[in-house]
Amino acid sequence: MLRKVVQDGVIARKGSSRGVVTLAIRREDPSRVWERRAPLTPEDVAELKGKRPEVDVLVAPCHRRVFRGEEYVKAGARLTTDFRKADIIMGIKEIPLPELPLPASVFQLTSSHPSLLPSTDGPSPHINPAATHLMFSHTHKGQEYNTPLLSRFVAPTSSSSGVNAVYPRLIDYELLTNEKGERTVGFGWFAGAAGVLESLSSLAHSHLSHGIASPFLYTPRPHSSGSFKKCIEQLKEIGKVVKEQGTPEPLGPVIIGVTGSGNVSKGMLDTLAHLPVQHITTEELDALVRNPDVDRRKIYVLHARPNTYFERTDGHPYSREDYYKHPDMYRSVFHDKIYPYLTLLLHGAGWAPGFPRLVTNAQLPSVLAQADALGGLRGRNVGDVSCDIGGALEFLTHSTTLSDPFYTVPNTPVQMMSVDILPTSLPLEASESFSKRLMPYLHSLISSTSGKYKGKEYNPEKDGYGKALEEATVASGGKLKERHMWLQKNVDGFYAGLVNPSASTPTSVTSASTPASTPEAQASPSTTSTLSQATEVEAKKGDATPPKKRILILGSGMVAKPAVDMIAATPGIELVIASNSLEELQTLTRGKEDSVRYRVADVSDPEAYVHLVEESDVVISLLPVAFHPKVGELCVKHGKHLVTASYISPQMKQLDEAAKAANVLLLNEIGLDPGIDHCSAIALLSQIRASPSSEVVSFTSFCGGLPAPDAAEVPLKYKFSWRPAGVLSAALNSARFKINGEMRVIPGESLLKSSFPRVPVSGATFGLEGLANRDSMVYCDTYGLDDGKMRTILRGTLRYPGFAQLMQAFKDLGLLEQSAKVTLNSWTDLLQQAMLVRHKDTALLHDLVPSQDLPVVLDALTWLGLLPSEGTAQRWPSGPHTPALPKDPRTPLDLFAHLLATKLRYNEGERDMVVLSHEIVSRNPSNPSLETVHTSTLISYGSSPSEVTKHLGGTAMARTVGIPVAIAALAVAEGKVASHVKGVVGPMDHSVYTRVLNGLEEVGLGMKESVYAVPRVAERRIGSRDVWNEGTAEGVLVAGLDIPPSDVGVEGLKREHEGAAVIA
After folding, report:
1. Which of 23, 51, 144, 776 is the most exposed place for a label (fewest CB within 10 A)?
2. What CA–CA distances, in Å, run from 1002 to 917, 967, 971?
3. What number of helices (H) and strands (E) belong to the chain?
């Protein structure tokens, strides 16, 4: 039988090579009761046959399909279930597993899983095993329940290369896009159109239950109307009744509110246009409802735009760009300004966790109270076409079906229509539209299969649709396409479960269309309890298998991915991630469903995730530093350990005694800076102290996150991967350090002027400058250094040469001012406005910038768009266009940061870089003329975009923060940290820092160390200062020093340092 199947596959391919292409339309899964759509209409089949006589079209008989088999036959197709010679097989949704041939290479693996087999003995003889399949497969996002389906198209890693010829190709409609990346084949408009009809029908039933019969009682339900055209004809008749008789008096003016701006809302508005509608604005609502003489022969439609119901919490006006960047700064006033006035709300706007809800559960009672006061049964009817459970409309509790389309929200009078398969209720028009959009792609696919187009050789290079089809291909020839290679692990796990069920259990072996488990979209005790049950079941599988340790990550930002990758790949660990961003959670967990679960939770509210803390062994907080103390409190209360990458704040310090009493470890400062810097410095100091005759006399440490040298051809030679305002503000911080025996204090006003022009770093092939970083003297206690014996102790931030000079000019010009807000008419206004804020009167740029710096400053301002360009040659390559101008008043610093976020962003293909460098000088007191220099250096580059999806890939900053956090958390979970390490600590214990450093070494982030001896001699004298050993970093820094000694402001500087994070 296997030989026969392979031969059939070869025969089919030979047929294609003769120019004959067989196209087949399969039936949809019989378990999908309402699925009546077809991917290709009889009309388009006839057109295809007329233009492409070499095409043979096969159609599987189906009495549920919207088009009858006879129509396809008349169009030139043949009715059959024999698809053995079909080159292309089309459907709408996933093909049922029993109807898809099992690859010959793994047929023998399924003997213990008969539900995976076709109904016949051996691989199915009815479908060509090498065909190209088109469908909405729901496999490319790593949907766990469809891994068995994906495995029909992808060979296991262990498979021999000789069997690839009999694997089918999978093309997913959802991945078909145009050159702008926009989806080209879909059903959104029909969801909106059907949603209007279903919602009006629901509205009429609601009114009838209150004793009011409205014209909408005759609204046609699309699935039982035969066609959308008939629905519209009936809707127009309803409109005539409204125009002639008006709507019932008890209802007052019927006002329908529409949200959304995409195809869904367009479908809504296009359908409502067949009624006698009058469009209104939000400002007209109150007067309209209160007008006793209102014209009830119209339907009033309000298309609510986000700028009318979202507002910033600080009172500033709505900005779309700002809203998507800072959704936490916005709140919805829809519940107050719009919802109470609506007879029907048609909701078609998208929503994602982390963004403000349109209406919350807490707001609903006030909505209904206000609506009741207005009369007309307002606020009681909703058609939620977007159907986000518990989403923008938090009170939406579940979706409904066409058989039972609406329900009453518990404990409220609100009636909800929330059918989530609306396009299937318009199978005729939805299929016609889909078929027309698909036809160009189909012609391309036929040409590429036959090798001919209009009698000539097919040239794929000239076929844009062919390129789109290639991009939409998930797998071909038994191999995943490069962008989907991360799914191979899922496939291998599935096959492993077939060979050895105890090794891995297939998620679903009965149906590719029925999820065995769905993503946990809302954090709640009920959903997380399944994790506990899963752990218990795992423990019961064998007495020798200990229960898995569970690590909880709070936050899903830029440093999360490497941490997630490392923890997810560790046996015996179960990982849960909680965040308010569903999109980020899905990205982080894609391909890791066997070891990672996620929860959407409002991480600003501890009550939303406390149950997750209770069920975990270790918690990692990647939240903003202000949230850490509260997380720490919960960990202490419930006896859980905590790991963070942030400095120990005063609030966190206060938990020390309670944590020790609870035998809890709150491990902080375990990222890059602080983190790797601590671990490497302490390890190096420990080596030095192993020799009793050595004493440390100098400690310098510099760290910086920078663009890689080939990405630094921009002003400042710097790019932003996070909020620019933080970098700009850091340029205003004070600093304190000791160098060459002298204490130095630099006020923030002088920091940039006091930069170190050269900071030597071992192994660096590029120049660097440095800025002192806050209070270095506190590290005498941290590292056990005797400040009385230390001639130098200095920590700083690295930048490329020229950064401080140019940033100082920006500061002198007022661009870093925060004392007042300004409003701009254009970006060229910013410079003049900023100078007025700083200097209070008219100032000339040439008077504020030293003449030697003027050329580079003018070029930079022009490049950034702050000065008009006169067409002169630029010293840097052209950059991105300036962003949209903020309309609200902002400080010069905030405006400058907004500009830099766009102009100095990382472009596609550019990498970042992290540089960390320690130099420690020691000596034997009995021989002070000879000193030993110890260096420890890390230079790490980020992954290119194509590598980011790989294990532990990402930006250099993300890797050097996320991976140490993961290593430390795993050490805590696995009991590798010494038992005496409890309370609020940094990574100062040997059991912590050695494990972190060893783990970093294993992933290519090891520190490079060197040791060499130098004589202690004065090489030259600068003023009254001897310069010693310019071959060392300390000597070079002393030589570049131009800061007068000072002891002013030490206490204030200490307070400024408390809890502050280093700006890398």
Report:
1. 51
2. 20, 11, 15
3. 34, 36
Question: With a threshold of 0.90, does the pTM exceed it?
Answer: no
One-letter amino acid of 337: K
The three-point CA angle 1025-1027-1032 to 5° equals: 150
**3-class SS of residue 972:** helix
> Could you give phi then psi for residue 975, rounded to 5 degrees?
70, 25
Fold of 549-675+954-1001: Rossmann fold (3.40.50)
Query: Which residue has 């209007």 as its token pair?
Result: 196
DSSP notation for 365-423: HHHHHHHHHH-SSTT-EEEESS--TTSSBTT----B-SSS-EEEPTTSS-EEE-BS-GG
Q: Tell me, yes or no, if the two domains 187-425 and 549-675+954-1001 fold the same way.
A: yes
b/e code 94-112 from CB counts within 10 Å (16+ = b): bbbbbbbbbbbbbbebbee
String of DSSP letters for 666-694: EE---BBTTBHHHHHHHHHHHHHHTSTT-
The residue type of 510 is: T
User: Residue 1063: CB partners within 8 Å, gap ≥ 6?
Assistant: 726, 727, 729, 730, 773, 797
Q: How many residues does the chain have?
A: 1064
DSSP code for 478? B
Taking 60 as the threshold, does the pLDDT of residue 505 lie above it?
no
Pick the range with the lowest mean pLDDT from 20-34, 548-562, 749-763, 1048-1062: 1048-1062
Q: What is the pLDDT of residues 514-571, one digit of tens each?
A: 332 233 333 333 333 333 333 333 333 334 446 788 999 998 877 888 999 999 988 8
The pLDDT tens digits of the residues spanning 804-848 come to 999 999 999 999 988 889 988 889 999 989 998 888 776 677 778
The residues that bridge with 890 in the sheet, in sequence order, are: 822
Is-contact 30 418, C-beta < 8 A?
no
Nearest to 832 by CA among 823, 804, 726: 823
Q: What is the DSSP string of 422-457?
A: GGGGSHHHHHHHHHHHHHHHHHHHHHHHHTEETTEE
How far apart CA 762 and CA 779 sit, in angstroms, is 23
Question: CB–CB of 963/1003 below 8 Å?
Answer: yes
**Separation of alpha carbons 557 and 578, rounded Å:** 11
C-alpha 201/C-alpha 247 separation (Å) is: 15
Q: How many degrees, rounded to 5, is the angle at CA 335 between CA 329 and CA 339?
A: 135
Cα angle 941-946-951, degrees, rounded to a multiple of 5: 70
Residue 74 pLDDT exceeds 90? yes
Query: What percent of the chain has pLDDT above 70?
Result: 84
pLDDT at 748 over 70: yes
| pLDDT, mean over the chain | 82
Per residue in 363-416, pLDDT (tens digit) is: 898 899 889 888 999 999 999 998 877 888 999 988 888 888 999 998 899 999
The secondary structure of the chain in percent helix, strand, coil, rounded to multiples of 5, reads: 40, 20, 40
Contacts of 247 (CB under 8 A, 6+ apart): 214, 215, 253, 254, 296, 297, 299
Q: Could you identify the residue written with the tokens 């218990």? A: 536
Q: Which pair of tokens denotes residue 828?
A: 């060229």
Domain covering 187-425 in this structure, CATH number: 3.40.50.720
Backbone angles phi, psi at 346, to 5 degrees: -105, 105
Q: Alpha-carbon torsion 310, 316, 320, 325, what sign? A: negative
Architecture per CATH, 21-110+122-168+429-499: 3-Layer(aba) Sandwich (3.40)
Strand partners, 311: 331
The domain spans of the chain are 21-110+122-168+429-499, 187-425, 549-675+954-1001
